[in-house]
Design brief:
alpha+beta, 5-stranded mixed sheet, two-stranded antiparallel sheet, 339 residues
Length: 339
């Protein structure tokens, strides 16, 4: 039989044990809820910074690969458009001139109907004649003028200079240029006479060295102030008639490898015409970005379109002689091994 004293003693013991367990549990909870120390927080931040540093170059490489593919596809569409134009009119468009029902316009204007931009081409109709000029209005009203219309195929997403040097055309910037040796008249390649800007080229007649061995398009920065004059670069509608007449071409025209503009710009020929990869300070005047050369926004090389409609990525290490052999469509010189 349990006495009252024993019962009281047992109850007191249980209370002490419960209090001890409560204190231990409270301390454990407090320990479990303890926050990070400053050192631990700095270590975590350092680890995150290292991971970001490792990941960022990989992300940039993936983004550049995607942009380069897009740029390549643009050239592909332009090159196929050339073949459609040739099939339609029996010859290729001029570097600048009259072609296919349109008067006094550059190569990129004449390509519009063959790259699914016929509505822009038709918008310059005046009395049934396609006559593009600085005052040609955009039928949609926004932007106001055709010279300000963005043609997606004419812009490479890797080009860092788009809309960096424009005056009033801006979205009209372009990232590509045509080969004067193909679309111009080679024997007058230093003349500003409009006749020199229409080589009357044809597929396959003009391409005596083979369409797969001849460059027709190359990449070229939209803004590039070094070289002949500033501002300089590439504008898809440059080379039309207007108050500030640029016909047949000037320092803002999509041209490489020959020709002389009405402003005195002379585009490089021969080995001196080899393209430049990722020129820095492209807005500097004078500067390392020369608007008389093809210029690539991609590391290690440049996309070019060939006469057969294909696209090739040329390494920046290609020999200048090989480059020029590929530019001239009828020099009769076999392609070197680095082609």
């Amino acid at each position: 039989m349990v006495s009252g004293i024993d019962f009281a003693s047992d109850a007191l013991s249980r209370r002490r044990t419960g209090a001890r367990l409560f204190r231990q549990g409270h301390r454990g909870a407090a320990q479990r809820c303890r926050g990070f120390t400053l050192i631990e927080l700095l270590v975590v931040i350092a680890i995150i910074a290292v991971l970001v540093g490792l990941l960022l170059p990989a992300v940039q490489k993936v983004r550049e690969a995607a942009n380069r593919a897009k740029c390549s596809n643009n050239i592909k569409q332009m090159s196929l458009g050339l073949h459609n134009a040739n099939d339609t009119w029996g010859r290729l468009p001029p570097m600048s001139g009259t072609y296919g029902g349109a008067f006094f316009a550059p190569l990129f204007w004449h390509l519009l109907p063959y790259i699914e931009q016929d509505n822009i081409w038709q918008a310059a109709a005046v009395g049934g004649v396609i006559f593009p000029n600085w005052g040609s209005l955009n039928p949609t009203g926004t932007p106001q003028y055709l010279r300000q219309v963005r043609i997606p195929i004419y812009q490479c997403p890797s080009d860092p200079s788009i809309s960096k040097n424009c005056l009033d055309w801006c979205n009209g910037d372009a990232s590509y240029a045509g080969n004067f040796q193909v679309f111009g008249l080679q024997r007058l390649s230093t003349s500003a006479d409009p006749v020199a800007w229409d080589g009357q080229a044809k597929i396959p007649t003009t391409f005596e060295d083979g369409q797969t061995n001849t460059i027709v398009f190359a990449e070229k920065y939209a803004a590039c102030n070094g070289g002949s004059a500033s501002p300089g670069g590439t504008w898809w509608m440059r080379g039309i008639m207007g108050n500030d007449n640029s016909f047949p071409a000037d320092r803002l025209s999509g041209v490489f490898a020959g020709g002389q503009g009405i402003d005195g710009t002379v585009w490089f020929q021969g080995t001196a015409s080899k393209f430049v990869v990722q020129p820095q300070n492209y807005l500097a005047s004078p500067g390392p970005c020369d608007n008389r050369l093809a210029t690539s926004p991609h590391p290690a090389g440049m996309n070019v379109g060939l006469g057969d409609g294909s696209v090739r990525f040329l390494s920046s290490s290609i020999d200048p002689n090989t480059w020029w052999i590929a530019v001239v469509p009828n020099d009769g010189i076999p392609m070197p091994g680095d082609w």
